[in-house]
């Protein structure tokens, strides 16, 4: 693929220079020229008044023979992760648009029963590898097995949750298949004209949204941000085709070894799974402030989050940090207490459905992104909320 | 403003500033509140090679001078005067060794100090503040050992340093020629520490008593010769005073920046207070005096590094003037902050508390004026005789 | 131990914005910085060097200015650095980047461990670490929060991998690749001697030919994915202020949240 500017047609009007998001076009002498920063986004093609710019498309050959939408159904210790249902909901929508089948891939030990849920939530087919060797997650085994399965069955789209597990092994699979992978998508759609998967995700810390295509390689792979997509309706009793998958392959010898899992017992609800998050920042003034937030979180059935400032002050552990160098969350409700709203924090939580900000500084940037802003002393407001809820 | 620093000097300044902002700033309020010694921070300074600056390369140092040391102290002090004091005091404790130590002594102790082992300088006693001659700690030669008895008071880094430069009377009958300097190590028999003082400012700095109770030292712990004590002390202060000046300049700069920043954002009567002439005049005076203090410290430090001999007068000036400036500037900074400046939530009240000691230690400003006055007397007296 | 650390120079993302009117990236005042996670990777490598001896080499793929990021990590104690730079490498997605870095690693020679930061804060993909491991055929563990056991003699590494609900303890043989999260350590400060070395050290630059890389696998040409559109995110936040005494604020908030259907308790 390449971008071509016809110097004979070009009038050096500069419209393309202005519109280019990457600074890739310059006027050199009497015509526009493109440099190596070009990403072939096509913005200049659309804006050129004399149609001097064209993008040559290579033929889409690699797509031959790839069909179907797959979702990787994540399970940890026998329980299906919430994101698996969100993927099925979205996957069903995409598969219907393409007119193809939706399959779920499930690896684990004694997880056969979960296959039923996957059918109920929309899967036409479940590829099941149920074996003691797959009890715990290792990149080698899960990655190697999924790669082999994809090579055997050739789906056109494979999705996975952008959880720690998904983000760990999906890149291995994509690299092994020499195909493209888009991380942490918040939007997916099908481009009608060529049936390509449009993958939309935040970049530059969430300051910019980018839509990405994988035009020539297959499958098109993406990890999907949890809690953004909607699970589909649950149809109990719905069934589909269960395909037993051989859990081993020649040459698939795992090198890493899972030893044990240590559960984080400090919280009842973990950030990644929480629908409600109560988060605290420097404005709490001390570690004890988190006791108050924990009380509210427990009442709401939510998890406790923190800004980097609170973690650096050692008021709470890093596992709770939300933000650019912490976790990205997407709950229904995010209550930010004593958090000023630095961009690096917003990056991690601004896709929440509803944001409530409690801060005694009316000029705190957090109020710019909040839906409800409460200016005042959080040590008066939070207890007031707690007592109101307890009634 | 450009101070025409060399690339290496800029590097030192940048590094000191980076560490001050990244490592010292987040903990300065807590260290002050808890009166907690900045041990972790001293480790970072050592990692950064900041203790190597003015130690010769032969002893694992970087072979630079007092000016480079002052540049580093200034940057640290801008963020926390107490941490800067801890850092600078180690340099002070090293000077007797640097200036008068034997080859063996230098080889043994200077590499340690360059690597971050803390030192301390011990002169002050209850009977000897400004009157240094009033010291009573005795050092008696018994065979091939010196036995020290006495108590030192208000020693910076007491209990935290491992190497102490201690002045004691070896021959009371000889008056000013009767004192000598010794190297005492933590752990030497008969050497212990007394109570740690509770101070108005620089609260993270460890200030305490050194107690010598028949403390036995091998004779090779004597620095230079018996009787050289006060000369060593005077030469040490000549070198170290610009360092105190640098502490003052840094502290004043930090206060100025905090005050100007606050004035920009504080709205009263519908305007940021920095737009009021009264505030602008205060800031103007603060800024001009900080710049003057800095110019003086830099000029004197460079002059001393050049190897100049009679530096006492200008060295005293480089301590006297900046420390007075720091006291005024930090006080004015609190004033500009208004009520907020009085609150411990804001950084300026600490800066004002910290500033006071700079007018007192390493020779009170009254002593500095004595030194300058005496030097002027000598200078103009000489000129007078020439006519 | 011979350790390679892969780093990246990124724009200081807090200042990067898309002008919604013109859809152009506003680059004014955007500095280039070392990717925040990479300093933790560097510190991990330096601590291993402190314990076991050896060398730490920093590697990056980027435009010529990325050399300053390599010099920056030398200030902290990294021994050597190498820059992979060529016009052909530009426009690379994570696959092409993984491929190019893999060729760079091969050029550098033998190693015991490759350490990467969890992700770069401009792309936010966290894909290059595992991608690089796969291209080199290395075992890898992501999101390492602690090194439990390091045995270079026995060629064995045990780590804790941060998961969403706790952590997995995983063992890997060496050579291997790990990506690290902030929790793993607190980076040291640079040293003066490091800064002096950083000024003087020679940083070799390897291009397409030096790496004997396949031109179809690098840069834009080698990227399976491409960006087709960039746009400013929808500004969010309805910015309703709830004023009054704390009790009033609490009352109005709970009513509003019930209306929004995000609050289920107390909704009866």
Describe this structure in words.
The complex is a heterotrimer of chains A (391), B (387) and C (268). Helix content of chain A is 26%, strand content 27%. With 391 residues, chain A is α/β, with parallel strands linked by helices. Chain A folds into three domains: 2-56, Alpha-Beta Plaits (2-Layer Sandwich); 69-244, Rossmann fold, CATH 3.40.50; 271-390, TPP-binding domain (Rossmann fold, 3-Layer(aba) Sandwich). In chain A, the strands form six sheets. Chain A has a seven-stranded parallel beta sheet with strand order 11-15-10-5-8-9-16, with helices on both faces. Chain A has a five-stranded parallel beta sheet with strand order 19-18-20-21-22. In chain A, strand 20, helix 9 and strand 21 form a beta-alpha-beta unit. Chain A is globular and about 75 Å long. The N and C termini of chain A lie far apart (64 Å). Chain B has 387 residues and is α+β, with helices and mostly antiparallel strands. Chain B has three domains: 7-118, Butyryl-Coa Dehydrogenase, subunit A, domain 1, CATH 1.10.540; 120-227, Butyryl-CoA Dehydrogenase, subunit A, domain 2 (Beta Barrel), CATH 2.40.110.10; 230-386, Up-down Bundle (Butyryl-CoA Dehydrogenase, subunit A, domain 3). Chain B is built from twelve helices and ten strands. Chain B has helices at 7-24, 28-34, 39-47, 66-79, 81-100, 103-114, 229-265, 277-305, 312-337, 339-342, 348-355, 365-386, and strands at residues 119-122, 138-142, 145-156, 163-169, 179-185, 191-196, 207-218, 222-223, 267-268, 271-272. In chain B, the strands form three sheets. In chain B, strands 1-4-5-8 form a four-stranded mixed beta sheet. A four-stranded antiparallel beta sheet of chain B has the order 2-3-7-6, covered by helices on one side. Chain B is globular, with a radius of gyration of 21 Å. Chain B starts with 6 loop residues before the first helix and ends with a helix. Chain C has helices spanning 36-52, 67-74, 94-108, 128-136, 192-200, 208-211, 246-259; strands at residues 2-6, 9-11, 17-19, 24-26, 32-34, 55-61, 80-84, 113-117, 140-151, 156-163, 166-173, 176-180, 205-206, 226-231, 240-241. The longest helix of chain C is centred in the first third of the chain and has 17 residues, at 36-52. The interface between A and C is large, with 116 and 94 residues.
